[in-house]
Batch of 2 targets.
Target 1
Amino acid sequence: MSAEQQTRSEVLAKGALAVGSIYGAVMVGPFVRRALAASGGGDVEILNFALTLEYLEAKFYAEAKGRAKASGELRSLIDLLAEDEQQHVDALTATIKQLGGKPVTAPKFEFAYSGPGGFLDLAQTLEDTGVSAYNGAGPMIESKEVLAAAGGIVQVEARHAAAIRLRNEAEPAPAAFDTPLDEKQVLKAVEPFIV
Amino acid sequence: MAEIKQLADPVSRRRFLVVGGSSAALAAFLAACGGDSGTTTTTDSMGAGGGGSETAQFGKGDVGILNYALTLEYLETSFYRDVVGSGLFEGPDLETIRRFGREEAEHVEALKAAVKQLGGEPAPEPKAEFPLESAKSVLELAGTVENLGAAAYLGQAPNIESPEVLASALAIHSVEGRHAATLNSLLGEPITPDGAFGKPADVKTVLKSVEPFLVG
């Protein structure tokens, strides 16, 4: 009987360890449950949320072409990112329409920075936030096709984040797992740029 | 599809470091799908919406997908371990390689835990060896491996059933994307080789690409 108890408690301990490990490492369990409970707007709402972030990024890079006072490789990078973000805007707009939804209009944005250094710091924040926003929203997406499209976008955001971080002499992949952010956290992060 | 460069030149393979473990399961699967190399897309009997059927050889449903990912993470981890031991790198490049290796090892641990949590048996570590000729060829191989890894996660994300498993996979997927862009950048290659949208890779393509590195 004591052997059996030992075995059972061992099994339970291992189970708890496994749960702690995956959630401890990735830190998504409680968040996902909360987020799922709070959501209900469906894929169109998630896509419109993503569209707002892409509007912000597209505007940021389009403006930075002149304003960041960048030259050479950094200038080329800005051109590339501006193009990618505009393509994300177009793709999300088309997908929302395809799902019978109405794409949100672009808010007015204002970015406070000066010079290439200021640009890089802000770009790093925006790209990292973009990655975390998509990762946070991903599990709430219902349609497989929409999820595949969002996945294709978030991978590019992650690539942007790494490239900007390299330019900024920061770790391109600072952690083994990108922390997801929920809608409230993302809105709080981008609020300062919406006028 | 991810373009896979054949960097593994069998003639110039001299410096192999072999890592332990059994690759029997993966080898058996590769043997099963290795015959007909003509097709580039995987469409098994389940077809579209098959819910992870592509990874059935690794287990049912999410367990199969996680074990597939685990197998790839094992390969990445052992690759970086061998590269660190090769003495080909020093300074900041070595630090980057060490860090990426540590991150892949964390992915291995998280995926093993997730498989067990779902009541599955984690896939065994495959036995692998990698050509470690020069710093340049190793960086190129690292770039290939990371871009492939990112594409592999992207290919499976829509098949994942559990939102929590999906959240974990997404948290890893974007880190693989960061690694890929970093290596592309070090190599002077485009950070987004597929343009504004990352492209997924199916299981068959991915396994065929890693086949040259499997031993036994």
Target 2
Amino acid sequence: MKIVVCVKEVPDMESRFKLDSKNHKILEEDLVHKMNIFDEFAVEAALQIKEGLNDGSEVIIILMGPERASQTIKKCFAMGGDWGIHLNDPSFDGSDTFVTARVLKNVMRDIKPELILTGVQAEDNLQSQVGQSLAELLGYVHSTNITKLILNSDKKSLTINRELENGKEEVLELPLPAILTIQSGINNPRYPSLPGIMKAKTKKLEKWGPTNIGMKSDEVGLVGNKRDIVDLFIPESAKVAEMIKGDPKEAAKKLISILHDKEKVI
Amino acid sequence: MFPLSLNNTIFIIIFLTAVTVFTRRFIQLIGFARLGKPSKIADHIPWRLKTVGSEVFAHSKMFRDFKPGLLHFFIFYGFCIISIGTLEHIVHGIFGGSFRFLGETTYNILYFFIDLFCVLVFFSVIWAAYRRLIVKPKRLVINKHATYDALFILFLIGLLMAAQLIFEGAWINLDPESAPTLMPFGKLTGALLTSLGMQDSLETVKETAWWVHILTVLFFLCYLPYSKHLHIVTAIPNIFFKRIKNRGALYPINLEDEKVTSYGAGSVEELTWKDNFDAYVCTECGRCNEFCPTANTDKPLKPRTLIMDLRHHLVTYGEEKRKGVEHQTLLTGGAISRDVIWDCTTCGACVEACPVDIEHVDKIIDMRRNLVLMKGEMEPEVQKSMNNWESYSNPWGLPPTDRGKWMENLGVTTMAEKKDVDYLYFVGCAASFDERNQKIAKAIVKILQTAKVSFSVLGKEEKCNGETARRLGNEYLGQMLIKSNIEIFKKYNVKKIITSCPHCFNTFKNEYPDFGGNYEVIHHSLLINDLIKEKKLTLKQGANLNVTYHDACYLGRYNQIFEEPREILKSIPGLNVIEMPRNKKQGFCCGAGGGRMWAEETRGTRINVNRVEEAAATGASVVASSCPFCMIMMEDGIKNTNKEASLKPKDIAELVAESLS
Amino acid sequence: MGDILLFAEQRFGSINETTPELINAAKKYAEIKPGKIIIAILGDSVGEFAKRLSKLPVDEVIKVENPLLKEYTPDGYAKVAFELIKARNPEIILLAHTYQGMDLSPKIATKLNIALASNCSAFELKDGKILWTRPVYNTKLQQKIVLKSTPLMATIERGAFAAATPTDKEANISEHKTELQPNDIRTKVKEVVSVMKGTTDISKEKILVAVGRGIGKPENLPVMKELAKVLGGDIAASRPVVDAGWTERERQVGQSGKTVTPDLYLACGISGAMQHVSGMKKSKCIVAINKDPDAPIFGLAHYGIVGDLMEVVPALIEEAKKIR
């Protein structure tokens, strides 16, 4: 069985982001990049299925990103991924979810995986779209926010738990081929062993551009996007801690009102 | 004496049997140990001889616990001297001769000492039995089997001494002319025999005593490889072959070697043969447990148990291999549990205390390496820290760009701004990020600036030096961090490093040379002490405070720096230094070392609380330390025991900075 | 004057609370780009729901009833949505960004070959185009985007708009017969389970009242628990409190405890040491109450009160009760 995991490298979310307001981007200087946290869970889930099958099934890593992102693919290899494709071409830069889904669809045409896993969302864009869109493009069934994943004994269908609101989950059965977006907490992503790290250096990693997937450079990247970013800014509330003055009763009243009316958290 | 040649034949048969039994088993045991990996040990001979002289012949480590040290001193020297007598018995048993050829004076002097030591040993043995049965010091309480073994050995030794004395007594009475003249206790025994009316059976008594003595010796010889008393054979070689490398330096794994496919120790075949051999030397004395932080807080890790379990496992494993039988248990995570492997703070109190130089810490590190490097296994919160080291070069997972924030507006230069300085002040992760420790860094900066020391820091270029990652078994990550640091130091041509963290200090000084990084490393306590002595700092009279100093393991025990921090405290007017009972070489660990800072303490009671209570009990109102981890642990422990009002933790740098005029 | 097509959500016998918010969002949209607000509701028997929706400020309610729509499935709901969109040709399609909305909307957008703006907290008209505001970078930053395809499609962030309230008008309810076949639906819904099995899992809570050593003694815990209850959340704790045995380890937040991202994190008597902060700093709204004005937590919190916990907390409980 071929299990594809679509992985993204994102900047570390703990960073204090500095903005390039003119270009509506964050400044890359001094940033630490790592695997999108949700994708880590997806990789682990894929590896567990592969190990459960123990029949030569492959876990294939696909990543779209710049050169530095190959370190994330290597980490997936070190965890146990078998081989991968790095969609690394300047024309891919800035691709939105619309473009990304279509690029991936063309990648999958050659691979024909039975199962595709992605993380629920990318920590940077928070769109939560690519997995679902890709499913529609490929004609695969999909589900999202998966907290439990079992390959049924017939090896042709899955029993999954999908997270719902209010502490509930629904148990679903889906036929393969399928795409699932994986929620955090489903497993404990393994720490790569040293032999794994050593082996990762020699696993097959192909570098693909638009031509490898039969697309033109104007169908991808900023040119091919179906949405434009026109502003990027720091929202008001994240700037400074507001000290609420007054005696306990007054302060309490003010706080509750803020939490209810302004922050809408209670 | 007994001309019956028949006795000689019987004796030779018995003697050879005993020797064969012993040798066969001993060689098997060596074989089991040698299942382990090679270990380079025969270098630096003069140093090794000196160590044997001090630890064996002067009993330097044994005397740390004076009374048992003394009684063992008697037993040891008694064994040496009396063995000459035993040798004479054996020679006599085989050939029928004696050692009289040594000359009358020598022979008399020899037997004087044999006689003297017989009694000394006999009473030492009684004293030892008394300790084990009545006094029952904590470290001697193990289990029934070990106690019986110990008492049995004491009994055998006592029996040997009694037999020898009775032999001498009979000998003197039978042969007053030719028996050695200087045997006062032999004479007394002889008189005792007479008073018991045994004059007529003296020959029988003498022969019986002789046979009892010799048979006991030969029985003992056979018993040796099955008991902890084997140490009489293994201890001196073990001390001779002890670890040359500075204890503070872990043995690096050569990660470039492509032939190596297994890292760390998952079985006894992956420990070094010396690590395995250690297990045969353990006398179960329990001194390793005395100051061990985990043994003292009810955790499963007790260094003695670790070694005894290793011995048991090694022998079982060896037997299984010999018989071609499948191995029932593995070492790492099996015979030695994961809890035991992870709880160690690597404080080294066990290694410091062990009179036969067993190296507990090395084995634990190798087992950790197996778990982490081969299986990617570690406690979940530790895994978080590993990921943080990888991504952010600090265990907290805080942005590297924040690393220099604490020094804003202090006029401190970074290497990028000014690299033409005398010292690199390596701040370390704790002082860079932890609020409490940032105060210490600021104090150090104040001191350095007051004394006009020329220094720069790395600021946001600073990365963790990998010390803790290595101690948590992640040799790969540790070496990556080390190599990064060496590159940065090269970039700025760093020659001298000041650090306020003993872990940083230890690794730069003792471990970085293994990777090509050679620097002059100075812990802030040494520097400050020098500055005070050179009068570059003027300390004004402060409040009269009782201070107790908590020795940091990686500064004190590992690098022998005990006096300088104390001298600093003593030179601050108004401070009165009180010692805790467990201090200097026997300082009690705060609990944060070995990577435990980053893990949950889920087993037993809290190590830091144990230490804080000891500090509070001295009546001091300040507990001074010289390590950021110790600081965090002390603060935590003080909060936990509600002692904030009565006991304040301070770094020595803070005390000095506060006292600067 | 294009139509604004909304998709309501219903499950477990009620309309999702985000649906009235969605309607309000549509209302606001209609103010800047006038158009008919049509809301579709899918299920097997949704007559009651349709009636309720018709009383909210919408212009038309379309009910789609079919046994195959009893359970939400992406195949079923997306096909119906596509039918409706093809039939009504709206200018804009909106859903709420719920678990269901998240699961469904990209599939619909892809069927239509259009872009989708997800989890939008606001929108505005500028130079004739709609700008969608949405959180990015773990909600640390926000972006504004313009969609370049038509029809427009977006999902609305939960709680970004207030719930629309019923009007005195009643909208027309129409019916749409779907051509959905059993073969169209590949997902089988087997059962719904509850994750809360009695074991404490604070990471699922949206509101946490976290207690630190500042509460002083375990005797002060009950009042903290009451505050948590009144706010609809649960108790979390910093390490010293758990270590002292005042509460269970499952409630510990921090470097070596749980990492939580609730909507509201009330740090009470917590100083804000690094080890704790790393476990909760991604909380949406952090409020710190501490008697030490220099406590590091105030550097991280969104709101702060310097005061005695035992005075502030009872007052909070009283005020919170008033708004329930």
